[in-house]
Amino acid sequence: MMKKVDGDSSLNKGSPSSSLDSGRSSIYNSSSLSMSCVPSRRQQIVNLAAEARLMKSPPPGVRPYVRSKMPRLRWTPDLHHCFVHAVERLGGEDRATPKMVLQIMDVKGLTISHVKSHLQMYRSMKHEQMIQGNI
């Protein structure tokens, strides 16, 4: 940390900062640093979000989040094994459709949305494995 040097002003005459130092605290002096009155960009976003929650409407251009009434599904190892078995019976991840996988699995409480997202993740994982295997 640099501090303003008091004393001989002839030391500062040739430096470009000498005109800035005269009569003011140095910007490097920690005691002169203070919080700005202007909020940071992050704080502005936080403030907008807080205002939006109070108004019960999102900021302009932002779609409101609508939480599903269905509880989140946990894909257990047994449930995933059943899923993989259904996908293999249908000819692999590229030929399997969410509707057919759902019918073959026949699990109570499982919806097509659950299967769609899991199949999408499963396909991307398989394709990534193929790419890494070919390198």
TrEMBL record:
<keyword id="KW-0804">Transcription</keyword>
<protein>
    <recommendedName>
        <fullName>HTH myb-type domain-containing protein</fullName>
    </recommendedName>
</protein>
<feature type="domain" description="HTH myb-type">
    <location>
        <begin position="67"/>
        <end position="127"/>
    </location>
</feature>
<keyword id="KW-0805">Transcription regulation</keyword>
<dbReference type="InterPro" id="IPR009057">
    <property type="entry name" value="Homeodomain-like_sf"/>
</dbReference>
<dbReference type="InterPro" id="IPR017930">
    <property type="entry name" value="Myb_dom"/>
</dbReference>
<keyword id="KW-0539">Nucleus</keyword>
<dbReference type="GO" id="GO:0003677">
    <property type="term" value="F:DNA binding"/>
</dbReference>
<dbReference type="GO" id="GO:0003700">
    <property type="term" value="F:DNA-binding transcription factor activity"/>
</dbReference>
<feature type="region of interest" description="Disordered">
    <location>
        <begin position="1"/>
        <end position="39"/>
    </location>
</feature>
<feature type="compositionally biased region" description="Low complexity">
    <location>
        <begin position="8"/>
        <end position="36"/>
    </location>
</feature>
<dbReference type="GO" id="GO:0005634">
    <property type="term" value="C:nucleus"/>
</dbReference>
<dbReference type="InterPro" id="IPR001005">
    <property type="entry name" value="SANT/Myb"/>
</dbReference>
<dbReference type="InterPro" id="IPR046955">
    <property type="entry name" value="PHR1-like"/>
</dbReference>
<dbReference type="InterPro" id="IPR006447">
    <property type="entry name" value="Myb_dom_plants"/>
</dbReference>
<dbReference type="Pfam" id="PF00249">
    <property type="entry name" value="Myb_DNA-binding"/>
</dbReference>
